[in-house]
Every structure is written in structure tokens, then in C-alpha cells.
Amino acid sequence: MKIPKTFASLGFRNYRFLWFSTALxxxxxxxxxxxxxWLIFSLSSSTALVGAAVFxxxxxxxxFGPIIGVLVDRFxxxxxxxxxxxxNACNTGCLALLGSMGAVAPGGVIASAFFxxxxxxxxxxxxNAIMPDLIPKTALFNATALQGSVQHGAGFLGSAMASPxxxxxxxxxxxxxxxxxxxxxxxxxxxxxxxxxxxxxxGTLRIGSLFRPVxxxxxxxxxxxILALLMVMVGLxxxxxxxxTSLLPQFIRDDLTADSGIYGTLMxxxxxxxxxxxxxxxxxxxxxxxxxxxxxxxxxxxxxxxALGLTHTPLFAFIVGxxxxxxxxxxxxxxxxxxxxxxxxxxRGRVASVNFITASxxxxxxxxxxxxxxQIIPPKINMFIxxxxxxxxxxxxxxxxxxxxxxxxxxxxxxxxxxxxxx
Length: 423
Prior knowledge:
Layout: H1 13-44, H2 47-58, H3 60-74, H4 77-100, H5 106-134, H6 140-151, H7 154-168, H8 171-189, H9 207-222, H10 225-241, H11 248-254, H12 260-281, H13 287-310, H14 314-342, H15 348-372, H16 379-400, H17 402-406, H18 412-422
Helix pairs in contact: 1-2, 1-5, 1-6, 1-7, 1-8, 2-5, 2-15, 3-5, 3-9, 3-15, 4-5, 4-8, 5-15, 6-12, 6-14, 7-8, 7-12, 10-14, 10-15, 10-16, 12-14, 13-14, 13-16
């Protein structure tokens, strides 16, 4: 049976296992975020502590990302991925067990989020680095789009499962669900077979052998300006349009006058938007088409966040949430595919790690900062300012960066062909 073009990458057996593993693991990640955020807010009524939990999940990418990138280049990526997934299963399982005994305070949830962040960093770096080993390079954009549909779109599945459990049973039932999802993801990763050959010194783990390659990776990226530009774009995007998670509990309570059920449902709609956005664009195969979509989704990400801040009822928030999730997920998928296309295999783990560090670090700082300032700057005003600022930043970069404009402009070769055919 012929596979539709949108799902072409799923025709490759090993990629399917990776895709299902990511779908399960990221559903667990979103379910954890829903439960942890609401639990901390209900225990403390502190948006700042919610921001601290999100910060704790994301900051390990900054602290440990360079070392993780080296490990992913030096050791078997599939094995490291499996270790990360089963560690997350143990982490969330312990949190569920302690919670059932009434032994969890906000600090314990934040600590659990920190360890989850370390293994999530390893999981995502391995996933991104292993993709080109499983599919032809021509299918890479399709693969990253499908990965994006579950990396970001898992918010739909994770929130859809977590929301009723959160309302009917409580957050610790959601943590038990996270344990099951991570364990199932780990079982899927065990089925992946890859031809990856770890690079030199793969058997050593000395301090010098770890930090020297970090410097080599930085030098490599400095010599590849287009990678630096892509890191700037993803950093600004995550800081200004995706660091709103810590604001949602207060926004839903104060501006939408709603409860935890609406919180989980809004996260579900944002995730659904991510799925629909990635699936509807996964079949775009021309570099120019991808470049045009990249710029359009960048601007749409900022505008949709502004629109979310303007909503006053749950129904309108759900509708706008679809556009928020869709525009953000498509932008992130295209950015990742551009990065992986331009990174050599020798440095792919380190480049993927820097990409993850930039994204998670920006979101960590943004969530912590915005959550801490929420009593001074209300969530809806914050959404106006940050979303609008990103739109302005994209326009400025378009004006000053020929490299960014080249993403959607016709290549010289294409123009020559067009002229010759006209003649």
C-alpha cells in the first residue's frame, strides 16, 4: 500500500519506532507539565513557583547540554535514548508513589522537574541526531515535520489524558500516567536499529575528552554562519513566543475565570494545533517553499500569542490556541530541519545539543522571568509585549540579514533555468 506523501517517512521501519517513542515520551512530558504546574499553583498560589518548575525542567539543557552533545557524538545514540526514557519513567513513578503517601511539597516537584529536564535534554538531542541515520536526506524535512507533530503536538494527547485525571482523581494519577508513557516509549526505542558508528575516542569518558570537543563544536558553528543565524531565530522565538506556560494558570483564573479543567483543555487545543500544523505542511518539499513558510510561521507565532492575550472566554482561547500551537510547531520543525541539513554527521550531536540548549534555555529564562513579574505585568499584557516584540524582531532581521532573505528567494541556478526556458 502506497503511503501518502505527508507520512512518507513513516514508511521507514526504524523511523516509525522513533516516531512512536517520541509520541509517547512527549505526551508524558506534557502530562507532567500540566500536573506539576497545577499542583504547585494549588499548593502555593504562586505563579513564581510555577515559573520555577518550568525553569527547572528547561535549565538543565543549558547546564548540561554541551556535555550531552559530546556524549551523543561519541556513544551509541539509540542506547543513550533508551537510558533517558527509562530514567524518566523511574522519576515520574517515584513522584507518583511519594504523592500517594502525601510526601510531596512544591520543592519536591521542582526537584523532580529538574531531573526530568536532564533526561529530556538527552532524549531530544539523541532523537534529533539519530533521525538522519534512519531516513534518506531528501526526506529529512518530512521527518522533522512528523517529529514536530508529536514533539509539540503531544501536548494534545498528553493534555487530553491528563486533564480528566487531574480533575477527577488528582495530579498524582497523572504522574502515574507519565510513568506508563515513558516506559512504553523506552520499549519502542529498544526496537530501533541504526547504522551509526560513534566517532573517535568513543570508549573514553575523561574530562579532557569531553570538554575539548565542546570547543571544537563551537568553532565549527562559528565557521558556519547560517547555523548561527538559525540559533538566533530559535532563541528569540522560544524566549518571546513560547515562554508562556508559567502564565497560563493565572491567565485562566483571572482573565478567563476558569479552573484546572480549562487549563488542561487549552493545553490540549494548543497541542492539537501543533499536530494539524505539522501534518498540513509536511509534504512541502521545495527549499523555497519551506523558506517562505518559515518566515510566515515566525510572524504568525508572534501574532497568535497577541491574539491569545485578547481572549476573554474559554471558547475563543481554545480557537486561538490552535493557531498558537500550529504556528509555533511548524516554525520549530522547519528550523530544526534547516539545522540538521547543514550540520555534518561528525558534529550533528553537538549542533543538535546547541539547538536544544538555545530553545530550552530561552524558554526557561522566559518562563522564570515572566512568572516572577506576573504581579507587575499581567499575563495578557505580557503576551502583547512578547508576541509583538518577536514580530518586530523578525522584520528587522529580514531587513538586515541577506542570509535570512535567501531562505525564500529563488537561487541563482533557479533564476538561470527560468531565463533559459523563457528564451
